[in-house]
Fold this sequence. Notes:
With 96 residues, the chain is of the alpha+beta class. The chain has helices spanning 12-23, 42-55, 58-66, and strands spanning 4-6, 70-75, 78-83. Helix 1 runs antiparallel to helix 2 (42-55).
Amino acid sequence: MKIEPFRIDVPQSDLDDLHARLDRTRWPDELPGVGDEFGVALGRVRELADHWRHRYDWRAAEAELNSYPQFVTEIDGQRIHFLHVRSPRPDALGLV
């Protein structure tokens, strides 16, 4: 089994594409009076999209995630991405 170091490095072109797609979203009309009976309310989805488009700082999140040692390996034909972070507590229970 080969374990390789990994760093998150999303190309700016991918983030630009995501922003462009969010900007081009065609929002549907919401059925009156149903609220969240048939899924997430349209208003909530629009709030989430606005957050991802205008307030979420991907580069800060990427830097925070990259501050931890990350690796990839293959197990039973599946690529597995994991972090290896030791607890400062000697009696800590391992988390897998």
